[in-house]
Design brief:
- The complex is a heterodimer of chains A (807) and B (287).
- Chain A is an alpha+beta fold.
- Chain A contains 19 helices and 35 strands.
- Chain B contains 12 helices and 14 strands.
- Classes of the chains: A alpha+beta (807), B alpha+beta (287).
- The interface between A and B is medium-sized, with 30 and 23 residues.
- The complex binds flavin-adenine dinucleotide.
């Protein structure tokens, strides 16, 4: 060996494979303004469309007059439901098995609902046109309170469903009822409560909020009449699904539809579904023969495209005096707005809410969910979470704190007492999931040590005494949250979207010089797939990550995949990538054996190539194997080096984490200060620790926003009162707390590289940590549960209701 | 979020601007930093057909001392205020308040003239101007007039500015040396307008409050001068009871709107808290 021969460590480092804090390759273009987003797509002759929207939450549309609008210079067409009916597109199917109006058909059912689509030569003319469309409404009583939706005399919202006693998910009990979903053993659970020594019951609401990505929803549709082909550039988290949906509803052959999702500026679930804007832009392009762009503005995004949460969870826990949980009963009233446009796997009307038993060993549980219609925007998407897992985590983590309070027990101690033990995995939960792996006690204890939990509790005791003596106006809260996620949808046995199994895919093509391209069915919206996917391949096949180009989002070139949401990319697409890489490696081994003139079985893998067992100097690098693949493969072997893998996961993955928030609240103003936030995440094998940290920071910031003020709120008339960033809370760097991150590693036993997904954990685990901190702060004044969001005035109101200002 | 059609004018002198405004009438609006006007236009809540941009006019910008007054040109930005050693030295409360307005991007564009002329109850400068006893110079086709800030505000977005008039400068009497000052602002986040804010200017004699002025932001349709509250603290050393009384007197004149920042009761309550905190901080600072 001469001095120039790289050491094993150097060879390993050169790959920048799994475990490396590789810098994000996509950031070079993003930080220099060279990204290519939908709004950057500018086609010759392109037109612009924009919506006339309803000022009413509930009204009959008496007439729409477009005459004056059509006189506005530049306005070419005004599309209404009547126009859409000629192509059978006035309504569209939703992912949840409901139908949704594309444009108001006889009625409007929420404020800012799409009423007409004005197409013009530029965006200004389109907006001028909007202001000239005259719509005559007859106002109807709005139904805003989900708890009143099933009153006998509640207004009928969905006249199109008249007489339909069952929907996509079974029987309907009322004209505003969508579905009832029941899981678990009712009799056993009832018995657990009958025999309970201690029990709690609380209605825990998770308010309506919105994913609000930086880039709003948008598309450019271009129909080529000669070829009969439709090209769509759009902000799609799941471009292949969009292509299939378009093929099914627009009756254009699927191979003639080209869906391209270019760079996306954040999705968080907002960009999974299909929106009226897409349909209208496509129809407008077909009608005018020109490309048509639709770009949502911020107010439209917040008020009309998919909201998240709005779950009202009546939660009961049964336990022994010693604090061992014996049963869980939850009833959810789910407010879906005017149409059920939830983006869940089709068979799951309430997503994976049945993960609500959380990290605890509940012997029995019973869950029922009722979905109802109200005069609010449709949606119910998974805002940075796997299908209703955030709601479930909030429900159980608040519930456990309430139980601890009732028992007079420390909330951390109660959790430690009830955790599923490491040796119980794989664990079958009372509501039907098989948790793949976990080590909850270790994670919890690590968190408690890291923050000196006992010391913090001691300080809290002192602070409370000082408050009672009138020496301070500040109260202190500790918010413990221990969450179990369920991500990686999902196994074909239980997950599909409109009948398409939720696999994912990867195609790798190695070039002769040892570089290659990987095309993947997922679609990054900022997650950094171009960086991390290459790292998986680097480790698997020994080619530097820098030499692998990752491409996603073009349905003509990428293999069919179900896209990116629900933290599914690493669990599903990540597995497909590893499996495709292993196919490459298997063929590479055959090529190396032939070239080294040994039997395949005599070769062993060594970082970046194969070597002969016992003869380490006899080796062939992967780079050389790539070359050989194109010029000197064994007789009878096909040349080339590429592979495709479609991965149907055997199970979900179950990331978990232990979080704690330390907060002070000034009772006079309700102003809070997050003193400390510590987040320990276990996402199994860690592909890129820097990206994980970034994901955790982002998710915690969103969790902070949601818990502490971010909401979509309506007044009694159905007006959205938080429809812009003035009132919809997006924290800046100034408000955002400092995040401390930590980890343990419990690899997934069934995933090819043991990874579990992390993007959404911080949102799922963060919200209960903040809310528990606020609730914990107020608990010594006699409160059990204060609803989110915990913004300043509501904290003040809580203090006031607890008698803090009584003379 | 797309404004209606308008035409754009960029006069080079105040006289030209005034002429344009009087020729074009109600359909014309002066444009300063545009940070209030342009958002309104994007929502089509304002639809001026003509914008008269004041940026081309030399002499509408700048800060100078004129005897016992500091004169600030209407087009002076909040950033300019922060960068000025004159302001930092003799009007530190103006520096403090400017720093509480939004973020650097907004402050680079937003002007003092636009902020006080707009009549938006959420703007911080108007209440401060009341507290400082400032007056505004208005120029129009019929000449020049000075008006006290306390006479200027008539309702939300409704001021004494006559059609065709431009606010050209703001005149602020230099406060006494050794005065105490504080601007206390409660807001939900950077970039938000005040949930409640209070400005306090006071002087001390023999350890007691000698003079005091209190201004209130976003607690009514117009900025408020809390005169009764200010009177209450004179001659006291701000004991707890006095502070509470002052807060109560200030709350009595507040009539905020309920909005996403909180219900009326909350905003009045924290308005009182802001008054107490501003009084305490100003008192501690006064020599
Ligand atoms: C995100 C954001 C946050 C903000 N937060 C705050 C805050 O917390 N506190 C605060 O005080 N301000 C705040 N502002 C307002 C900002 O600081 C500006 O002061 C304000 O927009 C007005 O100044 P402008 O120069 O932008 O005026 P413009 O928007 O150009 O004009 C405002 C109005 O005044 C009229 N006008 C302007 N100049 C004159 C003049 N010389 N004579 C006659 N009429 C005139 C215009 O015709 C218009 O009607 C915020 C703005 C933004 C965008």
């Amino acid at each position: 060996m001469n001095d120039m021969t790289p050491t094993r460590e150097q060879r390993e480092a050169k790959l920048e494979g799994m475990g490396c804090k590789r810098k994000r390759v996509e950031d070079i273009r993003f930080t220099q303004g060279r990204g290519n987003y939908v709004d950057d797509v500018k086609l010759p002759g392109m037109l612009h469309g924009d919506f006339v929207r309803s000022p009413h939450a509930h009204a009959r549309v008496k007439s729409i007059n477009s005459e004056e609008a059509l006189k506005v210079p530049g306005v070419l067409a005004v599309i209404t439901a009547e126009t859409l009916k000629t192509v059978n597109l006035a309504w569209m199917p939703t992912l949840a098995g409901d139908v949704q109006m594309v444009l108001a058909d006889g009625k409007v059912l929420f404020q800012n609902q799409e009423v007409a689509f004005v197409v013009a030569t530029d965006r200004y003319a389109a907006d001028d046109g909007i202001n000239k469309v005259v719509v005559e409404y007859e106002a109807l009583p709005p139904l805003m309170d989900p708890f009143k939706a099933m009153d006998p005399d509640a207004p009928v919202l969905r006249e199109d469903l008249a007489g339909k006693t069952s929907g996509a998910h079974g029987p309907r009990k009322h004209h505003n009822h969508i579905f009832e979903w029941v899981v678990g053993d009712k009799d056993l659970t009832d018995a657990a409560f009958r025999n309970a020594e201690v029990s709690i019951k609380e209605m825990i609401s998770y308010h309506r909020t919105h994913p609000s990505p930086l880039e709003t929803c948008q598309c450019v549709c271009s129909f080529d009449k000669i070829k009969g082909e439709l090209s769509i550039w759009g902000t799609f988290q799941a471009p292949h699904v969009i292509r299939t949906v378009v093929a099914l509803i627009a009756k254009i052959p699927e191979h003639k539809i080209h869906v391209i999702a270019p760079d996306i500026g954040g999705g968080f679930g907002n960009k999974v579904g299909a929106y009226p804007g897409y349909i209208c832009a496509a129809v407008a392009s077909i009608v005018t023969g020109k490309p048509v762009k639709w770009v949502e503005d911020r107010i439209e995004n917040l008020t009309a495209t998919s909201f998240a949460r709005d779950y009202h969870m009546t939660t009961e826990i049964a336990a022994t005096k010693e604090g061992k949980v014996t049963g869980l009963r939850v009833h959810v009233l789910a407010d879906h707005g005017a149409f059920d446009a939830c983006a869940d796997p089709s068979k799951w009307p309430a997503g994976f809410f049945n993960i609500v038993t959380g990290s605890y060993d509940f012997p029995t549980a019973h869950l029922s969910v009722d979905g109802v219609y109200t005069n609010k925007a449709p949606g119910g998407v998974a805002y940075r979470c796997s299908f209703r897992v955030t709601e479930a985590a909030y429900c159980i983590e608040r519930g456990m704190d309430i139980l601890a309070q009732k028992l007079g027990m420390d909330p951390a101690e109660l959790r430690l007492k009830n955790f599923i033990k490491a040796e119980q995995f794989p664990y079958h939960s009372a509501l039907g999931w098989e948790y793949d792996s976990g080590d909850y006690h270790t994670a919890m204890r690590k968190m408690m040590e890291a923050v000196d939990y006992a010391g913090l509790r001691k300080e809290q005791v002192e602070k409370r005494a000082a408050f009672k003596r009138g020496e301070t106006r500040e109260i202190m809260g500790l918010g413990v949250s221990f969450f179990t996620e369920i991500v990686g949808a999902g196994p074909s046995k239980n997950c599909d979207i409109l009948g398409i199994a939720m696999f994912d895919s990867c195609e790798i093509r190695m070039h002769p010089t040892g570089a290659g391209i990987a095309r993947v069915g997922s679609k990054s919206q900022g997650q950094g797939h171009e960086t991390t996917w290459a790292q998986i391949i680097a480790t698997e096949i020994g080619i530097p990550a820098d030499d692998i180009m990752v491409e996603e989002g073009n349905t003509d070139t990428a293999p069919y995949g179900l896209g990116t949401y629900g933290s599914r990319s690493t669990p599903v697409a990540g597995a497909a990538i590893a499996m495709a890489a292993r196919k490459i490696k298997a063929k590479a081994q055959m090529i190396a054996a032939y070239k080294l003139e040994v039997h395949e079985g005599d070769l062993e893998w060594d970082i970046d190539g194969f070597r002969v067992k016992g003869l380490p100097e006899k080796s062939m690098s992967m780079k050389d194997i790539c070359w050989a693949a194109y010029n000197s493969v064994a007789p009878g072997m096909e040349p080339g080096l590429e592979a495709v893998s479609y991965y149907d996961p055997p199970n979900m993955t179950y990331p978990f984490g232990a979080y704690i928030c330390v907060m002070n609240i000034d009772v006079d103003t309700g102003v809070y200060k997050v003193r400390r936030f510590y987040a320990l995440d276990d996402c199994g094998t860690r592909i890129n620790p820097m990206i994980i940290e970034g994901q955790v920071h982002g998710g915690l910031t969103e969790a902070f926003a949601i818990a502490m003020g971010q909401e979509i709120r309506y007044d009694d008339e159905g007006n959205v009162v938080t429809g812009s960033f003035m009132d919809f809370f997006i924290p800046t760097a100034v408000e955002t707390p400092h995040w401390e991150t930590d980890f343990t590693v419990t690899p997934s036993p069934h995933h090819p590289i043991g990874a579990k997904g992390v993007g959404e954990s911080p949102n799922v685990g963060g919200v209960p940590a903040f809310s528990n901190a606020v609730n914990d702060a107020f608990s010594f004044l006699g409160s059990t549960h204060i609803q989110m969001p915990h913004d300043f005035w509501r904290n003040w109101r809580a203090a006031k209701n607890l008698g803090v200002f009584a003379a | 979020m797309i404004p209606g059609p308008f035409s754009y004018h960029r006069p080079a002198t105040v006289a030209d601007a005034i002429k344009l405004l009087s020729d074009l009438g109600d359909d014309a609006r002066p444009l300063a930093g545009g940070h209030s006007l342009v958002p309104m236009m994007k929502l089509r809540l304002a639809t001026p057909e003509h914008l008269i941009d004041l940026h081309g006019i030399d002499g509408l910008k700048g800060i100078r001392r004129d005897g016992a007054n500091i004169v600030i040109g209407a087009m002076t930005t909040q950033h300019d205020l922060l960068a000025s050693s004159e302001i930092a030295g003799s009007l530190p409360i103006l520096h403090e308040t400017a720093l509480l307005i939004a973020d650097p991007q907004v402050r680079y564009r937003g002007t003092l003239g636009g902020n006080v002329a707009n009549g938006d109850p959420g703007n911080d400068m108007p209440a401060l101007m009341l507290t400082l006893g400032a007056s505004y110079r208005l120029e129009g086709a019929s000449g020049v007039r000075d008006i006290a800030a306390s006479e200027f505000y008539q309702g939300a977005y409704f001021t004494a500015l006559e059609p065709g008039e431009i606010l050209t400068s703001i005149l602020i009497p230099v406060p006494a040396a050794g005065h105490g000052h504080a601007y206390e602002k409660l807001k939900r986040k950077v970039g938000d307008y005040a949930t409640a804010a209070a400005a306090v200017m006071l002087t001390k004699a023999n350890g007691k409050v000698a003079t005091c002025a209190i201004g209130l932001t976003n607690l009514s349709e117009t900025p408020l001068s809390a005169d009764a509250a200010a009177k209450l603290v004179i001659g006291t050393s701000l004991d707890d009871a006095t502070l509470k009384n002052a807060a109560a007197a200030a709350s009595a004149i507040m009539s905020p709107a309920a909005d996403a920042r909180g219900p009326v009761e909350y905003r009045k309550h924290v308005g009182g808290i802001m008054v107490m905190r501003a009084l305490q901080r100003a008192f501690a600072k006064a020599a």
